[in-house]
Amino acid sequence: MATSATTRCIRCQTSDEETIQVPQQMVRHSKLFENLTEDWTEQQWEDPANCIPLHSDFEAKHLQWAIEWTDLVETELNGTPSPALGALPPGLPMDKSVVTPQEYDLLKRMDGDDDFLHGMLKCAHFLDMPTMLRQLAMYTIASRIRHNPPEAIRHFFGFENDLSETESTRLRVIGESLAKPQ
């Protein structure tokens, strides 16, 4: 990732022998990086020999994904609303007009790509990024249940259908009335 000369970065060595420049904005989102660099002097930030080795199963692509996610969060924190980073409800439209091109790309990669999602979750856990971990968990659940009928959702969560026929009918009527355009 290209950074400007004024942006401080830390260098990380991944398991696939790549050195990645991690911008300071990402350091703020990772408790691991924050703890490692909290006492660094300006010289330590600038020293190219200062390279943090990462876990043996931590590939460069995982770190790049986390940097992309951090860029989206920073956009959100700087006042530009980011619908993809809020609570992702089932049925979130995967429409390029609703999210930025970067958000669209990231969400499309997560949607149905379990390897990508697993890598993101592993990365968020290892780097101790609780916000990223929470958002990925919400997205994962939402994407697994969206567009499913109630029976499939109950099965997914292991819930028993303990509603009486009267309760089911009443809820179905309410749902249908809410689904009608006003």
Explain what you see.
There is one protein chain. The protein is mainly α. Helices cover 53% and strands 7% of the residues. It has helices spanning 24-27, 31-37, 42-46, 60-77, 101-110, 114-126, 130-145, 150-157, 165-179, and strands spanning 9-13, 19-23, 51-53. Strands 2-1-3 form a three-stranded mixed beta sheet. A hairpin with a 5-residue loop joins β1 (9-13) and β2 (19-23). It is elongated and about 70 Å long. The N and C termini lie far apart (47 Å).
Query: Judging from the principal axes of the Cα atoms, what is the shape?
Result: elongated
**Average pLDDT level:** 76
Strand order of the largest sheet: 2-1-3
Through-space gap between termini: 47 Å
Strand residue content: 5-15%
Topology:
Elements: E1 9-13, E2 19-23, H1 24-27, H2 31-37, H3 42-46, E3 51-53, H4 60-77, H5 101-110, H6 114-126, H7 130-145, H8 150-157, H9 165-179
Parallel strand pairs: 1-3
Antiparallel strand pairs: 1-2
Helix pairs in contact: 4-6, 6-7
